[in-house]
TrEMBL record:
GO terms for cellular component: neuron projection; plasma membrane; presynapse. Keywords: Antiport, Disulfide bond, Membrane, Metal-binding, Sodium, Transmembrane, Transmembrane helix, Transport. It comes from Oncorhynchus tshawytscha. The gene is LOC112266069. GO terms for molecular function: antiporter activity; metal ion binding; serotonin binding; serotonin:sodium:chloride symporter activity. Belongs to the sodium:neurotransmitter symporter (SNF) (TC 2.A.22) family. Disulfide bonds join C161-C170. GO terms for biological process: amino acid transport. This is Transporter.
Length: 641
């Protein structure tokens, strides 16, 4: 059979090997490679990978955002659209990224030379988005660290109104205080501690005048980034050990807080409020938009993390089972967090003799740093519960930061191996310093306004658009037939019809639905009593476009630098392509034999091996002209919107 050496670059030699107690075979740890490239680091144990993925997916949003979104959109009725969006949108995207990363063993930039080179700008956009997230996400951990350090005292500082930062409006409101009258201008000691002592937001009139940097928060953030650096500087070998603590400790704390919350008076009021279904709200478009956005940002495809983590797996690791297990754990954690939050909110409502909906009026960091912190302060053994709670918040954030920066590091090291592979420690140090300097604006007196701006505009729309282009490139350009053949080569079975339909049609519609909804119904950005002026909306969109602009910019660069005249390049754009056939994918035997590689017969009804299923075939397939037109139209429509 006339084949070349490059035809075997994604096939792994299979020899009888012993399996050690790490869960991976000795072959997997030493010589398991899917290409003839330089040896690649692998996870020491299978659990290192699983805990890293779970730690990345289960973040602060699971604790503060899901419970609020759930009760706001119909309580128990919200679980129906949430599960539908997870099954038909979130999990297929999660599975696709794990399979892509494991097969091509590349980060989010260099992987595109195997799939569709003209889309390489997507990888650069992902890296920029990851940096934007690092600019504000770690600041929330700095706030939590400030709270943690303030908790090491007999009386928590946000319990009383006798502190230097308190105002005349401060009022400790409990049902036992019969002489206390709560007014519209009254503020709780927990709220004043958060806004006037930690954030000091009263010293900034808004985004136009942020004020000075808070040196206390600057030191807290420096400590956070120091932990991050020494956890990821050596690669997944070190971070895989750290997540055994940072990914498991939050579950222990959640269980402790759940048991404690269930024993508080009024806890069941909160649980009923959390789960009581309002089926009428399912007729509202907002409920479905929130469900789609929540599952997307909860599972986290499109940030380059899943590609990076999966690229360190052995070639024949069962990423299908990993995707189902980790995504299920993530969804169950969100559901569990709702009980942890609302048992305490029910307790607060019982103490104040008001409705739960009045207590649960805030989402985001305020839910944790004001409402939950105040509830903890009024519990017996308040110091203990405050310490473990804010330690949990820090560890939830650390896992996501490890993952986000590892996605950038893997992408850059794979793209520039000669320059960076032997200088990983220095590169990681430089990256951490850049993230710290970029976060200084969030440490000012008006830093909370910057955090909110980044959260609403800098990452959300851009990353959804990036994932939309990613799934289009894989399903329509690279082709589901070739992609399913790749999966079959790794796992020994091909994805079923459900997964192929999701990748080709449902996932693009799912993502387009979120994009259009965001553009049609932009969120009203408000923090405390500050309403963001119109010019901040323009600024936010500019920040978001600054990352996404890499996609069309690289397309133009790729077409201009390609060989041949522009007319020839237009007609045959250099991009791998196969027929998008969701009914009959190509089927490989797994692991394939090096001596038996049958060619694909397109007219046959029998499953066969795709020719050159590996993208490393020495020559690139050529995209048809309509492929480039689709690409240009998508980019043009998004920019016009």
């Amino acid at each position: 059979l006339p084949v070349s050496l490059s035809d075997f670059t994604h096939l792994s030699l299979s020899f009888p090997v012993r399996t050690n107690n790490s869960g991976y075979s000795r072959e997997a740890q030493m010589v398991q490679q899917t290409s003839l490239d330089r040896p690649r680091e692998t996870w020491s144990k299978k659990m290192d990978f699983l805990l890293s993925v779970i730690g990345y997916a289960v973040d602060l949003g699971n604790v503060w955002r899901f419970p609020y979104i759930c009760y706001q959109n119909g309580g128990g009725a919200f679980l129906l659209p949430y599960m539908l969006m997870a099954v038909f949108g979130g999990v297929p995207l999660f599975y696709m990224e794990l399979a892509l990363g494991q097969f091509h063993r590349s980060g989010c930039i260099s992987i595109w030379k195997h799939i569709c080179p003209i889309f390489k700008g997507v990888g650069f956009a992902i890296c920029i988005i990851a940096l934007y997230i690092a600019f504000y996400y770690n600041t929330i951990m700095a706030w939590a660290l400030y709270y943690l350090l303030a908790s090491f005292r007999p009386t928590l500082p946000w319990t009383t109104c006798s502190n230097p930062w308190n105002t005349v409006n401060c009022l400790r409101y409990l049902s036992t205080d019969s002489n206390v009258t709560w007014t519209n201008t009254s503020t709780s000691p927990a709220e004043e501690f958060y806004t006037r002592q930690v954030l000091q937001v009263h010293l900034s009139p808004g985004l136009h005048q942020l004020g000075s940097v808070s040196w206390q928060l600057a030191l807290c953030l420096l400590f956070i980034f120091t932990i991050v650096y020494f956890s990821i500087w050596k690669g997944v070998k070190t971070s895989g050990k750290v997540v055994w603590v940072t990914a498991t400790f939050p579950y222990l704390v959640l269980l402790v807080l759940l048991v404690r919350g269930a024993t508080l008076p009024g806890a069941w009021r909160g649980v009923v409020f959390y789960l009581k279904p309002d089926w009428g709200k399912l007729l509202s478009t907002t409920v479905w938009i929130d469900a789609a956005a929540q599952i997307f940002f909860s599972l986290g495809p499109g940030f380059g993390v899943l590609l990076a983590f999966a690229s360190y797996n052995p070639f024949h690791n069962n990423c299908y089972k990993d995707a189902l297990v980790t995504s299920s754990v993530n969804c169950l954690t969100s559901f569990l967090s709702g009980f942890v939050i609302f048992t305490v909110l029910g307790y607060m409502a019982e103490m104040r003799k008001i409705g739960v909906e009045t207590v649960a009026k805030d989402a985001g960091p305020s839910l944790l740093f004001i409402i939950y912190a105040e509830a903890i302060a009024n519990m017996p053994a308040a110091t203990f519960f405050a310490i473990i709670f804010f330690l949990m918040i820090i560890m939830l954030g650390l896992d996501s930061t490890f993952a986000g920066l590892e996605g950038v590091i893997t992408a850059m090291l794979d793209e520039f191996p000669q320059l960076l592979s032997k200088r990983r420690e220095l590169f990681v140090l430089g990256l951490v310093c850049v993230c710290y300097l970029g976060a200084l604006s969030t440490l000012t007196y008006g830093g909370a306004f910057v955090v909110k701006l980044f959260e609403e505009y800098a990452t959300g729309p851009a990353v959804i658009t990036v994932v939309f282009l990613e799934v289009i490139a894989v399903s329509w350009f690279y082709g589901t037939s070739r992609f399913c053949a790749d999966v079959n080569m790794m796992l020994g079975f091909s994805p079923g019809l459900f997964w192929r339909v999701c990748w080709v049609a449902i996932c693009p519609i799912f993502l387009l639905f979120i994009i259009v909804s965001f553009l049609a119904f932009p969120p009203e950005v408000k923090l405390f009593d500050y309403i963001y002026p119109p010019w901040t909306t323009v600024l936010g969109y500019c920040i978001g476009v600054s990352s996404f602009i890499c996609v069309p910019a690289y397309m133009v660069y790729h077409l201009l630098t390609a060989k041949g005249t522009f007319k020839q390049v237009r007609k045959t754009a250099p991009c791998l392509r196969s027929q998008t056939n969701i009914k009959q994918p190509c089927v490989h035997t797994a692991p394939p034999s090096l001596l038996s590689l049958p060619l694909m017969n397109l007219s046959s009804n029998k499953p066969s091996v795709c020719p050159n299923a590996s993208p490393h075939n020495g020559t690139e397939r050529q995209c048809q002209q309509r492929g480039v037109c689709v690409c240009y139209v998508c980019v043009l429509v998004i920019h016009l919107c």
